[in-house]
Structure formats: structure tokens, C-alpha cells
Amino acid sequence: MSDEDPFHRRLHHIASHALHPDTAQTSGMRRVEAISGTTVGSRNLWMGQTHVAASTASGNHHHGASETAIYVVSGNPSFVFLDDEHGEIRVDTKPGDYIYVPPWVPHREENPDPENEAVVVISRTTQEAIVVNVPDLRWVGPIAVGTKDPTDP
């Protein structure tokens, strides 16, 4: 282990009351970050929470080239995306469920519960929270953020 790399010499503890609210946002939800380049010096990982209030739907958005893993902590959020053949697809979840969102896929979170907030933990394959708010769920590819998809030759 190198003395020049102090990042790898210690663990970082982020208490629940210390989550960082200064991150990319989408209407209808509130994101807070725990693990990022900003909070702990992470190089390749972003992790945080999303809160969706009762009877609320987020705006449509995607996360650019970042893969997103979602773990449902509380509530029964629904995740909505567009399938060319079947139209809008709604995936209803419960605590303990996981959702995988591939790169560039427009989606939105909804919380149909009239009384309780939904809370999920999210993890992304980029150290920063890429959020691109879009007008609808149509997939338009990497051009939605003005960059080339890094997986294309």
C-alpha cells in the first residue's frame, strides 16, 4: 500500500443524518448522496437514497452511461419505462425488492401510496449522480445528454 494513496488506508462512515443533499434532482423526488467523489473520494461508485413523497410521481429521467441498482427500503414504489411493443410498463415493488436500470433508459418513479413516503437506496457505476431530465419516456439514446455512448465503437 502506498503512502501516497490515503484514500485506501481507512474506512469511511457516513451516518444517516449526514447524507449530502447537494446532488442532481428530478421533480417529484429528493435524492441524497452517501458515497461519492465529493463525500468520500470514491472513484467509480455513487450511492445514496431517493425519497418519493406519498401520491407523487417523479419527472421522467435517465442516468446517462451509468448503470443503476435500486433496493427498496420502505413503501411500495413503482418504476415505469416505455416498451416499444407494449407501451408503458409499470413494475410494482415492495420492501426488499431490487430494480436494475440499464444505461440511458428513461424511466420514472411513482409512489401511489396516499399516506407513506417511499425510500430506496441507489447505487450507480459512476462516482457522480448523472441525472438527465427528459420530457417523456421515449428512448433517444446517448444524444439526450449530447455525448456519445462510451460502449459504442
TrEMBL record:
Residues 51-121 form the Cupin type-2 domain. It holds the Pfam family Cupin_2. This is Putative RmlC-like cupin family protein. It comes from Actinoplanes lobatus.
